[in-house]
Design goal:
Blueprint (H helix, E strand, L loop, with lengths): L12 H12 L8 H8 L4 H5 L3 H7 L10 H8 L2 H5 L1 H16 L10
Helix pairs in contact: 5-7
Protein name: BACK domain-containing protein
Organism: Populus tomentosa (Chinese white poplar)
């Protein structure tokens, strides 16, 4: 799988997230997560992603949420995505938790 390839380099985990949403929505243009969140205010994940909803659930764990900026994680956590896509909620919470407490864990000493 391309997302697991050791030579894959990305400039932003947010771009990976957006690409996953674009593919799962069968969209021709890159639409950001903000657009998807707005669409979910008027629709359901089943209607929005159709037969690719399971793919969305399978692909989201490949996004490295803990590497995202804290401010972005907070915005993601307040979006409709979190309310409508349970795995997204779990991953965002994990990212926020890491951002808030990750540097306090044993073994994360910065010398």
């Amino acid at each position: 799988m391309v997302l697991q390839h050791q030579d894959l380099t990305v400039t932003s985990e947010e771009r990976v997230l957006n690409a996953i949403f674009m593919w799962c929505m069968r969209d021709k243009e890159l639409c950001g997560w903000e657009v998807v969140a707005e669409l979910l205010a008027l629709s359901t994940p089943e209607l929005l992603f159709g037969d690719r909803l399971q793919s969305l659930n399978n692909l989201l764990p490949f996004v490295r949420f803990p590497l995202m900026p804290y401010d972005l994680l907070k915005k993601l956590g307040q979006s409709n995505l979190r309310r409508h896509v349970p795995i997204f909620d779990d991953l965002v919470r994990e990212g926020i938790s890491y951002a808030e407490f990750g540097s306090l864990r044993p073994g994360n000493d910065q010398k």
